[in-house]
Amino acid sequence: MPTLKLPDCEMYYRVDDFTDPWTKPETVLMLHGNAESSLSWYAWVPVLARHYQVLRPDMRGYGQSTPMPRDYEWTFDRLIDDYCRLMDHLKIERFHLVAAKIGGTIARVFAGRRPERMLSLTVVGTPQAKRPGAEQIPALIEEYETHGAEHWARRTMDGRLGEHFPAEGVEWWTKFMGRAPVSSLIGFNRGINYADIRADLPNISCPTLVITTEESGLGTVERTREWQQTIPDSRLQVLPGKSYHVAASDAEACAKATLAFMQETSIKSRQGHQ
Looking at the domain that runs over 3-272, which CATH code has it been given? Predict the structure, then answer.
């Protein structure tokens, strides 16, 4: 089981690479959302891994990485440092960054603060740059502690996967997210989930793709376009539907759009160096 020893925890990761063995593919680093793990990208791997080396870590606190204590001080810089340590460990200097949900918040800050590491950025179904709802944090913590993570996941699942996702799939995602350690959820919600990242967006210099849906519960298309347009070299792609976890509900469509965007970026980069 591949793990990286960090100063205060261990981080598990998966590597998928089905490119031709005589090639040297670029790498895609994929960041999952809250209460998830690297497994959340299961439907993306067949699309991306034929063309890129795909690296899927479990964020500290989640999946097979070390759970974090409830009083752990979560910060963007600590998470960014985790991922940079992983890429340094694997001797990967620059990479494409792909993220979903709150992973997209972390990714936007990452790209803004470490632009020298980025080949491109894709964020899929991600919150507003200044996400409303921080006043809910005490009630969320009480729910986690009293009823557990699965109760929260089931209560909030409506709208996450849209109207047409199969019932069996909704139940799978509920159980999957319900396995998240309560201690990690508590600290993450306090430190990351409702952070204001507006100041980081103009510092993103790599080509950026933002994917949302027509009626996402994370914000209207207009609200999404407002923060997307503060990223200099960015574009917005709007898919039909109401899902806000569109990376899961429309995984193949999102993965194909991301693949096309990264390939376009790679071609332009090679042409620029000729």
Answer: 3.40.50.1820
